[in-house]
């Protein structure tokens, strides 16, 4: 992505998500990715997780009106080119985020594109979303998304479809699109059936495929956040959705190759360079 010369105002993006005290995923991965992509990161904290490289032991939700106020206050002053959502924890936060996005012009039918990463659980299976909030993800947040980026576990929870091959991936893309998102990305990274990782992108009309080599590393914490944040950065720079996904996929592949050991568990995808 183009870098801004020192001293001039860079492109800005906003992440609405949860923190990770271990610095690997969530808002930390988003902010680091945005900075590394030359984009100034604004953050609206929706939840604080108690987390290290081994797992998430708890989380604390920010009051919904405080989440919405963070969005309102940065969009009005700083102005942003694109936004993303990550961990939103509860129905009340999802509803508050959706209405403030509509109010300030974030979303598929507004001027600021919205990437929705429907975070439900950590890779260890620790919940990051109350189960009853799945309805709000489906019925409230998805209909304003420019693109949704669920992983295979999230697809199963949201659509009931178990993605095991190309045919089920296509069915899942159709089901996600039918919930109202402009574009649906079905991420094949967790499907361990080949040496490649193939994602499919669907806009209700055309299916596009994105393939990259599978990088086998145990240091894969925050991979979904890193991909969605990189897509957000590309959209903030004016890329089309397919070009932004191509950029994000290359970015996360490079990050996986450069990820590092940390703690006793999974190190972060988002490296430092
Ligand atoms: N913690 C937060 C705040 C997150 O947003 C996410 C992922 O989206 C995770 C943890 C889980 O990351 P992973 O599934 O890579 O462990």
UniProtKB/TrEMBL annotation:
EC number(s) recorded for this UniProt protein: 2.7.1.49, 2.7.4.7
Keywords, alphabetical: Kinase, Thiamine biosynthesis, Transferase
SUPFAM superfamilies in alphabetical order: Ribokinase-like
Superkingdom, taxonomy of origin: Bacteria
Keyword field contains Kinase: yes
GO molecular function, one term: phosphomethylpyrimidine kinase activity
Gene3D superfamilies for the chain: 3.40.1190.20
Pathway the protein contributes to: Cofactor biosynthesis; thiamine diphosphate biosynthesis; 4-amino-2-methyl-5-diphosphomethylpyrimidine from 5-amino-1-(5-phospho-D-ribosyl)imidazole: step 3/3
Domain Pyridoxamine kinase/Phosphomethylpyrimidine kinase: from-to ranges: 20-269
Catalytic activity: 4-amino-5-hydroxymethyl-2-methylpyrimidine + ATP = 4-amino-2-methyl-5-(phosphooxymethyl)pyrimidine + ADP + H(+); 4-amino-2-methyl-5-(phosphooxymethyl)pyrimidine + ATP = 4-amino-2-methyl-5-(diphosphooxymethyl)pyrimidine + ADP
NCBIfam families: HMP-P_kinase
Known function: Catalyzes the phosphorylation of hydroxymethylpyrimidine phosphate (HMP-P) to HMP-PP, and of HMP to HMP-P.
Protein name: Bifunctional hydroxymethylpyrimidine kinase/phosphomethylpyrimidine kinase
Species in which this protein is naturally found: Rhodococcus sovatensis
Classification of source organism: Bacteria, Bacillati, Actinomycetota, Actinomycetes, Mycobacteriales
């Amino acid at each position: 992505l183009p870098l801004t010369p020192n001293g001039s105002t860079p492109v800005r993006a906003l992440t609405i998500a949860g923190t990770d005290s271990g610095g690997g995923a969530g808002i930390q991965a988003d902010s680091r990715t945005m900075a590394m992509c030359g984009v100034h990161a604004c953050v609206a904290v929706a939840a604080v997780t108690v987390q290290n490289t081994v797992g998430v032991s708890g989380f604390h939700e920010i009051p919904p009106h405080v989440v919405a106020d963070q969005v309102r206050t940065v969009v009005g002053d700083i102005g942003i080119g694109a936004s993303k959502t990550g961990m939103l924890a509860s129905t009340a936060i999802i509803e508050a985020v959706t209405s403030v996005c509509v109010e300030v012009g974030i979303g598929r039918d507004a001027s600021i594109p919205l990437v929705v990463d429907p975070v439900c659980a950590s890779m260890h299976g620790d919940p990051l979303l109350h189960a009853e909030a799945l309805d709000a993800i489906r019925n409230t947040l998805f209909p304003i998304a420019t693109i949704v980026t669920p992983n295979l576990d999230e697809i199963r929870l949201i659509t009931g479809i178990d993605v095991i091959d190309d045919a089920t991936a296509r069915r899942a893309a159709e089901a996600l699109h039918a919930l109202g998102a402009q574009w649906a990305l079905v991420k094949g990274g967790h499907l361990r059936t080949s040496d490649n990782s193939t994602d499919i992108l669907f806009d209700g009309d055309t299916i596009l495929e994105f393939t990259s080599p599978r990088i086998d590393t145990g240091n894969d914490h925050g991979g979904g956040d890193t991909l969605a944040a990189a897509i957000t950065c590309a959209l903030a720079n004016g890329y089309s959705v397919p070009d932004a996904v191509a950029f994000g996929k290359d970015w996360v592949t490079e990050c996986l190759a450069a990820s590092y050991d940390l703690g006793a568990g999974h190190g972060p995808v988002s490296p430092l360079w």
